[in-house]
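Handout, section 3.2

Students often ask what a structure token actually looks like in practice. Rather than define it abstractly, here is a full record for Tyrosine-protein kinase. The first block is the sequence as you would receive it.
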Amino acid sequence: MESKDEIKVSLMTKRNLGKGKISIPDYKDRVFVLTKEKLSYYEGNLSKRGKLKGEIPLPAVKVIEKVDDGLLPKDNCFQVCYEDSLNLYIMASDTREQEEWVSLMQEACKNNKGLLPMFHCGIWQSGQWSCCRQVDKMAPGCKQAFSQRSPADTQNGSSTAQNQLPDKLKNRRLPPPPVPDHAKRQLPAPPPAAKVVVAVYEYEPSQPGDLQLKKGEEYTITDDSRTHWWKALNREGVQGFIPSNYVQEKTEKGLIGEGWYCKDMSRQRAEALLKQEDREGCFLVRDSTASPGTLTVTVLCKTPQTTVRHYHIKQNPRDSKYFLSEKYTFPTIPELINYHQHNGGGLVTRLRLPPAALTGYAPATLGFSQDKWEISSTELTLMKPLGSGQFGVVRLGKFQGRMLVAVKTMREGSMCEDDFIQEAKTMTKLQHPNLVQLYGVCFKERPIQIVTEYMCNGNLSSYLRTKGRELAEDRSPLIDMCHQVCCGMEYLERNKFIHRDLAARNCLVGEHNIVKVSDFGLSRYVLDDEYTSSTGSKFPIKWASPEVLEFSRFSSKSDIWAFGILMWEVFTLGKTPYPNLNTTDVVRQVTHGKHLDRPQRCPHAVYRIMKQTWEKDPMRRPSFKELQVQIEDIQEKDYCE
Ligand code: ADP
């Protein structure tokens, strides 16, 4: 029986929420009731409702959309997502019922604050999204949600749906689609989203089906449903896969391709790069981290002493012209930069050339090509040894005779190979500028070989010991290194991936002091008890948090503890932590809450961050996201405390 404040009541099938770690899909019939306040569902049937099984307050709803995926056992499915990542999949009895529920719920929730702009049109199953194959459950959706679609799109959507209806229902009026805000304000609908990108690096295809990229040329993206490899069309109409991190979307400001523009560079990295180059007027333009949407010019000035200055590019509200100093305004940013390259115009120094490092090397692609992670040994040429570690020797190598890689040959019996091979496929999908890219694994023959990005300056610990003095003349490169590791770890934390063995020896250094986290998660596959057991002689006790020492409880918070120790390694230029203590004393000291002392060259502001990572209670330690913000907030004045 419908009561008067019930908007709609239907008997539909619900898929379980899959809240547990392991959850097998399960389907139940429920009576769904929509009111102005909530969506509730009950046991029983339409004539006799049973026990209330669940309810979702409408203001908590973030997505209401149809599911477009043949994977579910029934058609006519729609989804309601709410809270952090709970997805309710509901199967209506026919298209009309599905349409009505979606429209009514979208209408009821259209003013919700937390509506997501994008959603997943597939389902979360077996650890990935079926629509875009992303492996992070929290990854942003791959399709525009109703709150973002133009009225034309929405109307098209429902007329297609109308055409699918049985004839006798065709002209029945469906509830009107929700009206997006911009239409109410009489603004023109946005143009259809054909994404045009510009190649920022050259890319030579390594597999059939890939498309060559020429730096500076434009490409139209025809499919961006996968995160790392997009389908693109070049000017000649040839289509193929490209690595998505080799292109950037063309912006209205038209800066992509300018030698001085680097989109995602942090203030720390910019300062470190300019200081490393050490040239008067060396500059770059970056997106401001502090005020998103604003561009910052960062420039090095050598007199009276070396300083790095940051200037926001402002826009005059009257004529939309850009300026650094109000007296000199320009219609475009390249014109503004060109002017200040020839005239100081109020800046500490005239802008000269950008740092050479900006024109440097292309980043690693995610795997060698779309879906390729299995590598044949015939594609590899092995060269000089780079080092050796827990699993065996690491050599410099060439993939297909042209691309430098590092090849780790696993000593037989050193790792649990089958489990690792299973995991490696997921690990190749992890991609971040501060993670050493795992390209793939060669596992058809033994010994197994792991192929990763090559980092020309070896591990961070040795690098600090040999190059540290040069770096430490100024403290910003040290802060920049910590910041880079923190960014890589923040990505792992976001992807719910625990490193378990973070330390300077497990980070690698590339050209221009780029630091990347390596060997993430590998310790799970080591077969040596001396390494895996906290009482073993090879266990990294000095990097272990109290809960790891006591209960082997690893988490992102135990990674945070290890990150604090790594910061200490950086600021002591590669010293071994607790230099005069044996392992028993270290355990005693750590479990009694006594910490490492502040290294001599470590600013107090940095030591305050380190100390937070060594809170005994893991829940009181900050997240990598929080640490990243704190490190970004450290200003040049803090170095001089
Ligand atoms: P394991 O994990 O088996 O202990 P590592 O990964 O630590 O081995 O490798 C041993 C050494 O080889 C490192 O300390 C580093 O100097 C060198 N190395 C490892 N991987 C690379 C790489 N991708 N690029 C350059 N050098 C590397």
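Discussion prompt for tutorial groups: The pocket of adenosine-5'-diphosphate is lined by residues 386-391, 394, 406, 436, 452-455, 458-459, 508, 519 (CB under 6 Å). How would you have guessed this from the sequence alone?
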